[in-house]
Amino acid sequence: MQLTGVEVRVLPDADAVAAATAEIVLSAAAEAIAARGAFRLVVAGGTTPMAAYRLLADAEADWAHWHIYHGDERCLPVADADRNSRATDEAWLSRVPIPSEQVHPIPAEQGAEDAAAAYEPVVAAALPFDLVLLGMGEDGHTASLFPGHEILPGPLVMAVHDSPKPPPDRVSLTPSALCRTRQMVVMVTGAAKRPALARWQAGEGLPVARVAAGGSALVLLDQAAMPDTAGEDPDPERG
Ligand code: 6PG
Hints:
This protein has 239 residues and is of the alpha/beta class. It has one domain (12-190): 3-Layer(aba) Sandwich (Rossmann fold), CATH 3.40.50.1360. The chain has 7 helices and 10 strands. Strands 1-10-9-6-2-3-5 form a 7-stranded parallel sheet, sandwiched between helices. A 3-stranded antiparallel sheet has the order 4-8-7. Helix 2 links the parallel strand 2 and strand 3 (66-70). The radius of gyration is 17 Å and the shape is globular. The two termini are 24 Å apart. Bound molecules: 6-phosphogluconic acid (6PG). The site of 6-phosphogluconic acid (6PG) has 16 residues, from strand 4.
């Protein structure tokens, strides 16, 4: 499968995508810490990365030198089950000894505009990132950058309203921040993502396409997410 400006790796299933992602994160961390004494990672929200985060929770790493940032956050109370920070903490970050002052949640509970303003200097001080992890929504969004929504060219962090994926109010890093990274991985798994992948493959200017190309991403797909290739039915029994 070809996607403009990115490398694509197709893996058998979601577990393989999780294992590959965890391996890339650990390798990037070792390299960054050896070269610069620190590893600056942007974690993705949503459900796709959770399997990789659970693998990382059991991994051995030089956690004292890890610095964690979020690609986006939903404007919900800190303890809300739908907060990306809570899901990532529960699956991984609360289980490894990264110094708490090196884990940087987006203060989205303050409201989108105030949180974006507060997080802007945190991101500015971290750039360039060593690795940015992203997912892709069924409409081709990534982080909280949605099709048809203005993406501000200037700031590193922006407020998002009227998100088509609840909750409506969010905070997102912009391409100006997400693409300032040594490496980027986009994880896409499951049949629900086929239509967006087909649109991406067809060259549609989706937010995920823009950010992935801007970050020279590695896109990790599982077979289930692959659009039907012309003439081949991946599920012949489907009839
Ligand atoms: C969010 C995520 C979002 C996510 C995609 C894919 O806050 O929802 O940041 O960008 O990565 O919507 O979500 P799934 O991995 O759950 O399919």
